[in-house]
Amino acid sequence: MSTEKTDAKIDGECLALGRYLFNQEVNEYVRDKYRSANAMLGLGNTVGHFDALLVSIAVRHPLLAKACDAYARFFLPQGALRKKMVLLLAIAEVTPPTFRFLDATDSGGWFMFFVRIMWKGMGMVFFLLPALFVLLPLQLLLKMIGFTRWKGESHV
Amino acid sequence: MSEVTIVGSGASAVHFVLSVLQMGYTVTMLDVGYAKPETVNPKDTLNGLKENLADPVGYFLGKKYQALILPDAEKEYYGIPPSKDYVFKIPENFREQSTGFEPLFSFARGGLAEAWTGGAYAYNDEELADFPFQYGDIEPFYNEIAKRIGILGDNDDLARFHPWHEHLLPPLELDEHAALLYAGYQGKRELLQKKFSCYFGRSRLAVLSRDFAGRQACDYSGRCMWGCPSDSLYVPSLTLEICLTFPTFTYIPKMLVTHFNYGAANRIETVVAYDLEKKQAREFPVRRLVLAAGTLGTAKIFLNSIHRQTGQILTLPGLMDNRQILIPFINLQLVGKPFKPETYQYHQLAMGIAAADPRKFVHGQITTLKTALMHPIIKDIPLDLKTSIFLGRNLHAALGVANINFHDDRRPGNYVTITADPDPLRAKLLIKYSPPDRENKNLKNLISQVKRILLKLGVVVPPGMLHVRPMGASVHYAGVIPMSTASAPLTASPNCRSHDFPNLHFVDGSSFPFLPAKNLTFTLMANAARVAKKEF
């Protein structure tokens, strides 16, 4: 894949993950940094096949991102998807305007916090269960048939 | 030739040098001396930096993203900020290998305390029981250092453990979270003291609460961890700057000292350094040599010197370090509340847990998280990342960390030695450390006790987030050439003169015979001033 195409793919990935994590479009500076960090830290070219698949599913839609995020937390906690999301979070928390979103609290006090966290917790379970049924067998299958490394393009 | 040659520029080195310069001595300091970068935008607050810097990611995470903590990293709650990289930079020629120990070395101008959090606690008589002097003997030097650097504190419940010396400045304004915790303690003071032998008070900090000696009072910019822009948080390079105003002081940087040469009656004649710029060895004649390269650096120079002269590979037993446990907590009263980033960032409260044996006093520092980066914490929350971010945003004001420190004893199984190599530059420092017997059980009991104490203050410890730091992480190394009244080989006199070499002194932690739980830096500085006064 050409450098332009790879960059566009990484940019798209950054935008999609930004929308999912922060409910906003990340700016060009964040995309630049995300791109350079992916290259510098080798987050694109050394990942496993399933790892790569998980990222490519997550960037398709925020609901799919939620399912992949929940799955990755428990079944691939050090995988590429979580690394990429934590990288984006680290960039966003020191960059305007996203740092202001990350520094802000939601209104409503203790009670609303409790309601929200219960709702989000149930949401996580709701997305985790179908992800578990689909992704876990796939992960095991790919491992069994020896597709351990991504052999295609250098970026997922 | 100077009357005194000193190796290193850390906290003890600079205070020893300032003391002897004031007495009229000529001094040469040999140092690698990696210098700190220029302070960026000194008037900006932390959030101001995020807004105004052209490349905030480069500043906060580093050009190589070295402060980024990914999910596969070691479980630390903050990385070393890129602006402090110079503190832990190691010359390529320096070699070490450790077992059971993860040491940090500094070759910075100012040493490891360029990256400290300012805790400045005097040792009391019980903690000095193994030292060949008492609190009354070192108290004038605690007073002197407090006068030089500015230390703040309060005459509170912890004063029974941390002696109340002169020249203490009033404490800083507490942030909202720390104020709540302190009020909680005041309300349950009797219960906590009676049931848990637990005492709270204000941290003793080498920070200014008013302008002092050309330095500004803390302006609550929230930038402590990235390097205090107003110099209100004391670092040793500030004292080095004062030393440099003396015409009798010569500072020679880029020198990695490898060994000294000695002649008749073990009198040291020269010290040899590798010039990192010219990439060749240089020899400096000395009259009196003072080693202040930090416990491990000093040990390496000492062992190399004996090996070169005699062929002997010696072992220095008794290496000590404070075990540290990080216990993150959530204050339920602050859940969902906003936080104020313009505050002092490091610990403002300290806690102590008394023990039947006063030497086993447990020291804790309570840091309420305001401006620390959140991604290292958020990544460890056992939920999907989006939900974890929600939690991080709404719990930020409520988060804190108790850093619990334990004492250490000199034990023969913990030692430093070197590999045999005719080239002292190539010789490797070998470190071996094993924790004391029953450590796990003792830590478990203590952790449970701290959790119960925190619960009484309305604070909960989330499961799975506690971190027992590896030995070496506290960077409070001591004990390999201890002060002793007996004139035994590989020890030092009560005034830190080597019992092996008559014109050699040690003024770093290498001569400490015991390591109390509390931070040793203030005592290092006071002891260095004491040695200057008693021996020079």
Secondary structure layout plus pairing:
The complex is a heterodimer of chains A (156) and B (536).
Chain A: H1 3-22, H2 28-41, H3 49-58, H4 62-75, H5 80-92, H6 98-103, H7 109-144
Chain B: E1 4-7, H1 11-22, E2 27-30, H2 46-52, H3 56-60, E3 96-99, H4 135-149, E4 151-152, E5 168-169, H5 176-187, H6 189-196, E6 198-202, H7 236-243, E7 249-252, E8 255-262, E9 268-275, E10 280-285, E11 288-291, H8 295-310, E12 316-317, E13 324-331, E14 349-353, E15 362-368, H9 375-378, H10 385-395, E16 399-405, E17 415-418, E18 429-432, H11 439-456, E19 459-460, E20 467-468, E21 504-506, H12 521-535
Parallel strand pairs in B: 1-2, 1-11, 2-7, 3-18, 4-5, 11-21
Antiparallel strand pairs in B: 6-14, 8-9, 9-10, 12-17, 13-16, 13-19, 13-20, 14-15, 15-16, 17-18
Helix pairs in contact in B: 1-7, 1-12, 4-12
Question: What labels would you give this structure?
Answer:
heterodimer, A: flat, disordered C terminus, B: alpha/beta, 21 strands
